[in-house]
Write a structure and sequence with these properties.
This protein has 8 helices and 7 strands, in the order E-H-H-E-H-E-H-E-H-E-E-H-E-H-H. The protein has 218 residues and is an alpha/beta fold. It has a 7-stranded mixed sheet, sandwiched between helices. Helix 2 runs antiparallel to helix 8.
Length: 218
């Protein structure tokens, strides 16, 4: 029987350290508050998961106390390891594979309206593929699943428009079968945030909805 884990990547919501592209249109403080609202909503969305383990990988390491207060029960807290995002993602998959997990799904915390079924779709894809990806609109992805560690998959520069295509190229070179899930979107810019607003749900994204309404002009 497979062992499944859902991992989340998160930053402490410090002004100037998160959502800096969004902050150019609102403020550093408002952008950080919006990221915090999205993060807390996403943590709650998966708070009742019973068919997989859950891990929250956070940065910076000295923010553990904040995450201990913020995370619902059931999340194992782990500091992110590595110098850059690609190195940190590779380390996450190595860690969980070494623990015996063979269905590992990593979700980012920039997409609060990602349908909850996307996680289950990723686990289902890993029954017949080695790699599952949920693309976003800017050429990257907001969710990735693997059966095992694969450092070579992350031998690339992240945070640019060619991340998804380069990841798929790496997968082909490594002989990995990949499945793309229905695309969704992240919130990185002011335009992304405005596009997000109609999809906010008071049941699934209450904090993000409330704060967004307070930040909107008028």
């Amino acid at each position: 029987m497979s062992r499944r884990i859902l991992a989340l990547f998160a930053k402490a919501p410090v002004p100037g350290q998160v959502k800096t592209r969004l902050a150019t249109e609102i403020s550093l403080e408002s952008a950080a508050a919006l990221y915090e609202a999205m993060l807390l909503d996403i943590l709650d969305q998966h708070g009742a998961e019973r068919d997989c383990a859950r891990a929250l990988w956070f940065t910076p390491p000295d923010a553990r106390a904040w995450f201990e207060r913020a995370a619902p029960a059931g999340y194992r807290l782990l500091p992110q390891r590595g110098a850059g995002l690609a190195e940190r993602m590779a380390a996450l998959f190595r860690c969980h594979a070494d623990e015996g997990f063979d269905r590992i799904v990593l979700r980012g915390t920039d997409s609060p309206t990602l349908p909850l079924e996307r996680v289950e779709q990723a686990f289902a894809a890993l029954e017949h593929a080695e790699l599952a990806l949920c693309p976003d609109r800017d050429g990257g992805y907001n969710l990735i699943g693997l059966r095992s560690a694969c450092d070579g998959l992350f031998a690339l520069e992240l945070s640019h428009a060619g991340v998804l295509s380069q990841t798929l190229e790496n997968a082909r070179a490594l002989g990995l079968r990949a499945e793309l899930l229905p695309a969704h979107h992240d919130v990185d810019t002011h335009a992304d945030w405005l596009r997000l607003l109609p999809a906010l749900d008071p049941r699934l994204t209450p904090r993000t909805l409330k704060l967004s309404r307070s930040l909107l002009p008028g």
